[in-house]
Amino acid sequence: MSPAASPPVPRHLAVIMDGNGRWAERRRRPRVIGHRAGARAVNVCIDFCLERGIGALTLFAFSSENWGRPEEEVGALMKLFLNALDREVEELHRRQVRVRFIGDRARFSADIRARMDAAEALTAGNTRLHLVIAASYGGRQDIAFAARALATEVAAGRLRPEDIDEAALGAHVALADLPPPDLFIRTGGDHRISNFLLWQLAYTELWFTDVLWPDLDATLLQRALDDFARRERRFGLTSAQVAGGAIEDSPA
Ligand code: IPE
Ligand code: IPE
Ligand code: MG
Known about the structure:
The chain contains eight helices and six strands, in the order E-H-H-E-H-E-H-E-H-H-E-E-H-H. The chain is an alpha/beta fold. It has one domain: Decaprenyl diphosphate synthase-like (Undecaprenyl pyrophosphate synthetase, 3-Layer(aba) Sandwich). Strands 3-4-2-1-5-6 form a six-stranded parallel beta sheet, sandwiched between helices.
């Protein structure tokens, strides 16, 4: 199957929300203040997606590696996460947002896990925006878990090793049911993926900005979308092939 052409707006936007700590440090405030301000920016981003008709939004909230931060910061982030779940989920549901979490949930406390489960159950039928929160998530871990799932199938005699291909592995990584991200945005000035969706970003358009996450606004997001609309996605083909319609318009 040929890949899908760029839609006018991304079907799926993936975001690394970076720069909370520096935002606070520049104001000589503790880092947690930056995380609190960052939580407000999440709403700016969700509102933008709802207004523009973007179907899926994946936000990197906490990486597998972030568990290694000072205990005090991890504790403050967990508290914020818990509060956000208590405060925001009803409103998201009212706005027909489906909420889902990817990552290693077992590492969270029981009260956070219970709220994640409840949020997913409450919003499961919503279709306006698919909001994915990547928490305790790592791209390498995601691929390793997919490999383990395939190995289990082989051990049980349900799959032959020679049947393992991109489609088989791709079916077991996170977000297999969504189109891959069309556009990736990272705030905070660093130009790296930091173990976000390694498999899923293979042909995603990457967009970086120095703006720190808590300073996010709709104008900045619109700039990213405008840049995205100007790009030619070739998926390994030539420009002439793309112009000749070799890339489908239908969703991948
Ligand atoms: C992103 O902001 C939020 C998390 C990783 C949880 P940072 O906390 O990484 O902020 P900087 O990069 O140190 O400024
Ligand atoms: C990536 O940011 C993870 C999140 C935004 C949740 P980091 O701040 O952890 O990434 P590095 O350490 O700069 O690569
Ligand atoms: Mg950072």
